[in-house]
């Protein structure tokens, strides 16, 4: 009999998540039925979307999230013992999976996938640059911003999983001028000195509008927005005519009480006079091209064009701390938990 540990949602998050919002419980798993297999988690992802997304589910559910795990028992020949999968199994150490049960209607109901062959790279990358965040950067930048060589790209949340990859594709693959916005001098130094960004702005110590005007006096062609709020309004007012804005996320609002959010900045003047295009997206839009993104990102890693960093928290019991640390900006690159 296998015992699983899991985090269940005891209380819906309000403002910054509190440890008592989740409860760590144990569960005895039954025997496998035909078609099922048993996965043991090795790496779990903590991502910003979990904060707003989980609110639409009832209390008592297992906290949502993706993991990379090893198949340790199987009644399904397509998922043999020893293979690794990546899938949205939630915050749990052991999971019985029935692949038929996945509806694929949204990101977190995607069917678990056997890991692609990534050679000697860490399987944990399939939660980051070779997984959902990597594909978010790839498709969001190429398909929504549609950048052209020589253009200027600004990315916010630039030192995180998605942002650091967006900037590197922009700089090292597409030949753009790339400016990142991030929350510490150390992160800004990493972006410029190690990842090749042209410039980085620390939004906690600098006036973003003033620093951006200096870094890109001719204006901005593409903005990849991970954060929303005042930072994004400042960037939007420095767009060039026919600029494109990809709205990927708005982490500056995730912990805020809806009633205390600032009133929307008037963006219409810059949108109209600069004839801007702004489009929100969810990466599952490109579910049918998923492998294309992963293989391209893998190729760019192997060619040395993109680098990746992980902030690893050890121990399944520390999932909550890793999650809140990521929301507070304590991660550089992808935040993950190693069981
Ligand atoms: N649309 C999609 O399909 C999709 C898919 C994946 C991710 N996303 C979105 O993409 C964004 C980045 O996700 P990620 O996984 O790469 O996370 P991440 O950037 O690795 O981690 C979150 C980062 O957000 C920054 N942050 C926190 N509070 C902030 C605030 N008030 N203002 C500005 N920055 C703040 C922190 O960095 P600092 O130190 O710089 O503050 C923190 O490290 C999120 O908005 C997420 O929801 C969207």
TrEMBL record:
Cytoplasm in keyword set: yes
InterPro entries in alphabetical order: ADH-like_C, ADH_N_2, ER, GroES-like_sf, MDR_fam, NAD(P)-bd_dom_sf, PTGR1
CDD domains registered for this protein in UniProt: leukotriene_B4_DH_like (cd08294)
A GO term from the CC aspect: cytoplasm
Subcellular location(s) per record: Cytoplasm
GO biological process, one term: prostaglandin metabolic process
Gene3D superfamilies: Medium-chain alcohol dehydrogenases, catalytic domain, NAD(P)-binding Rossmann-like Domain
Annotated Enoyl reductase (ER) domain residues: 19-337
Alphabetized Pfam families for the sequence: ADH_N_2, ADH_zinc_N
Subunit annotation: Monomer or homodimer.
Sequence similarity: Belongs to the NADP-dependent oxidoreductase L4BD family.
Record's protein name: Prostaglandin reductase 1
Upper taxonomic lineage: Eukaryota, Metazoa, Ecdysozoa, Arthropoda, Hexapoda
